[in-house]
Amino acid sequence: MASIRELHKQLIRKEKSAVEIAQEAIERIQTVEPKVHSFLCMTAEHALEQARQVDAKIAAGEEIGLLAGIPMGIKDNMCTKGIRTTCASRILENFVPPYESTVTQKLKDAGAVMVGKTNLDEFAMGSSTENSAYQVTCNPWDLSRVPGGSSGGSAAAVAAGECVVSLGSDTGGSIRQPASLCGVVGLKPTYGLVSRYGLVAFASSLDQIGPLSTTVEDAAILLSEIAGHDPKDATSLKVEIPDYAKLLKPDLKRKGGLKIGVIQETFGQGLDPVVEQAVKAAIEQLQELGAEIHVVSCPRFRYGLPTYYIIAPSEASANLARYDGVRYGLRTAESDSLLSMYTKTRAAGFGAEVKRRIMLGTYALSAGYYDAYYLKAQKVRTLVKQDFETAFKKVDVLVCPTAPTTAFKAGEKTEDPLSMYLLDLMTIPVSLAGLPGISVPCGFDQRGLPIGMQLIGNVLREDQLLQVAYAYEQSTKWHLSKPPLE
Ligand code: GLN
Fold it and tell me: Ligand 1 centroid to 6 CA: how many Å?
């Protein structure tokens, strides 16, 4: 689909109505969805109603914002009042939230048109969207391959042109990694920049909501809309939100020079040579654009993955205790005691990966092991963070690959959870440190599958991050390629 700005122009010039734009998106979904399966639920009626309201405003001569009338997909772990929110889990199969998440409320208020709720790994736990209890989403670039995860539905929907932008959530890479595998832009903001109110919790100290889009400008526009302090989220930051899109410039020439640091530990073993080549070429391009390139070392980057797999499951085990068949969600019918009701409900409602995480987390938090595992992991988390702090004393933005490989075949890694966990090697440290990261398309492999470059910013420096991503994007053509879906 066209970009936010293009559609906005068409709307205010009355070349197209919001209803027409919504209908185009709905038709596109009907055409490609049987192949891609990005959406768990389509909300066509809701979308047309939102669009009609935008058209009424335009007809009345009222000013509309950039997001008014823009079709978007929302990951199905964000609560939408009156619209089923399943988290791709059987345990929430019939959950219709009585309240709206802050991000979706902001988008509604801005006149955005939600076309559907997108597929994900159950409770956002996974890297391929294959952990969804309902369906497998296909990568639009090769339908036999995965779109990445856990926001695979949101990434595939944007790549397949089913919506202009979408929202994903990222705990250890779930926006950036699927963006990389689907050839789109995906931004995880600084922890606390975007409200988590109404986002179904996975690992609360890591979860962040962010945009997926075909262009950096669209991501910038969406971020300005969803960011900002929210009294309903205790970890939400009280900061001024700039108009990120206004700050974008086509080059990186700055007074004093913009310094970009290449994380040396992310190149080498385990990295697909074709990904390495593409990211190295992209770094040369950043230099062409005026950036000063430095090599930096983050020696404790590699401890990120094991640290995450203690912290995230620990938090998940506590967060998921609420699904007990009593409060809300699934309850299995026949049980002879309270305990058997709990266990039967949870056995039937959760999938294998979620159960694995609950067990890992419960173990790491238990009295005898807390110090050895959870407490230790928290300390290592600080060390990972310190490596970034040291690097940011020397440079403004860091760069590395987003994922070690391009999209793999569906089913290829489902039997081997460790190989699946390894996919987030480069995104997880950024999450542990609470930093912003963005994945931008930077090439294709020999099979025509997209490759992503990850840019990492200092705390709350989304402005700088988006500027680097934008200058790079504008000087290349990767983002203009579309998957051969027809
Ligand atoms: N793939 C990672 C996991 O399975 C990250 C998921 C996420 O960011 N939500 O936990």
Answer: 33
Residues 73 and 157 in one domain: yes
What's CA 335's distance to the chain center, in Å?
39
Q: Which residues of 442-472 are buried (b: 16+ CB within 10 A; e: fewer)?
A: bbbbeeebbbbbbbbbbbbbbbbbbbbbbbb
Q: Is the CB–ligand 1 distance for residue 271 below 6 Å?
A: no
**What is the per-residue pLDDT for 254?**
84
DSSP 127: S
Q: Measured in Å, how far apart are the chain's first and last C-alpha atoms? A: 14
Alpha carbon distance 109, 102 (integer Å): 10
Residue 473, pLDDT score: 98
Q: Name which of 112, 108, 111 is nearest 100 in CA terms.
A: 108
Ligand 1 pocket: which of 424, 431, 454 to mutate (most atoms within 8 A of CB): 424
DSSP characters for 245-297? GGG--S----TT--EEEEEGGGSSTTS-HHHHHHHHHHHHHHHHTTPEEEEE-
Token pair listed for 22: 């919504």
Name the domain boundary from 347, 379, 411: 379
- 392, 435 contact by CB (below 8 A): no
Place of tokens 């500027």: 467
Plot region of 393 (φ>0 → left; ψ -120 to 50 → alpha; else → beta): alpha
State pLDDT tens for residues 128-173.
Answer: 999 999 999 999 999 999 999 999 999 999 999 999 999 999 999 9
Q: Would you state the pLDDT for residue 333? A: 75
Task: Say whether 75 is catalytic.
Answer: yes
pLDDT reported for residue 419: 85
**Would you say the C-alpha torsion 152, 153, 155, 156 has a positive or negative sign?**
positive
Last residue of a domain, one of 345, 379, 413: 379
Q: How many CB atoms lie within 10 A of CB 370?
A: 14
Cα of 101 vs its chain's centroid, Å: 16
Task: Give the 3-state secondary structure percentages of the chain, helix then strand then coil, rounded to 5.
Answer: 45, 15, 40
**What digits encode the pLDDT tens for the residues 77-116?**
999 999 999 999 999 999 999 999 999 999 999 999 999 9
Rounded to whole angstroms, the Cα distance separating 410 from 139 reads 9
* CB 261 within 8 Å of CB 397: yes
Q: Give the separation between CA 443 and CA 452, rounded to whole angstroms.
A: 7
Q: Which residues of the chain have a pLDDT value below 70?
A: 486
Q: Does 269 fall in a domain?
A: no
pLDDT in tens, 60-73: 999 999 999 999 99
> What pairs with residue 118 in β-bridges?
39, 75
Residue numbers of the domain that contains 307: 302-379
Question: Do the domain assignments include residue 290?
Answer: no
Candidate of 174, 200, 317 to mutate for ligand 1, largest count of ligand atoms within 8 Å of Cβ: 174
